[in-house]
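look at this fold:
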Amino acid sequence: MFDKKFWDGYYENSHTPWDMGEVSPPIKNYIDQLKNKETEILIPGAGNAYEAEYLWSNGFKNIDVVDISEHPLLNLKKRLPGIDNRRLLQMDFFDLDKQYDLIIEQTFFCAILPDLRDDYAKKMHSLLKPSGKLIGLLFVFPLDLSQETPPYGGSVEEYTKCFSPYFNLYTLETSFNSHPARQGREAFLNLRKKSTDI
């Protein structure tokens, strides 16, 4: 897995090609439908976490933001000085030990090595409360196992196989309202945790 030094390098060199500078439209649309402001939310591998900023501006305060690099967390703190520092977690996602009502996935899944995807799905299952949801976006383009750096792609069929042992799949399909630069290259997922023990 790519370590802290690897990701720090992107921020220190101001090279973050995945960063759109705003919350992605499909996730914004989902957030706009949320009613319970007390929802406990996790955004893992969050980068500059525009999703957290949008949630905060809409009254959601129970947001944990996780990234292995400190740089994007400091960037978010500058934009949201009122956020509790205890909610900004610089750590490896796989070391997290807490449960949430909702987890928002934005570019993180496709930034980890493909051979960790089953571990990711299991970890997401363990991090969600009963009936908790995992929503977000995955890149859709052919998976090239020979490439040395992320993002790593995949297909809706591959993602369905990965998540279906652990989640009920409400939606896992090509996103219809992606950012123009990502039209046809994203799948939106809306998954609910299965109650069975893994």
Remarks:
- Helices lie at 4-12, 25-31, 50-57, 70-79, 117-127, 156-163.
- The radius of gyration is 16 Å.
- The longest helix spans residues 117-127.
- Strands lie at 41-43, 63-67, 88-90, 100-106, 128-139, 167-174, 186-193.
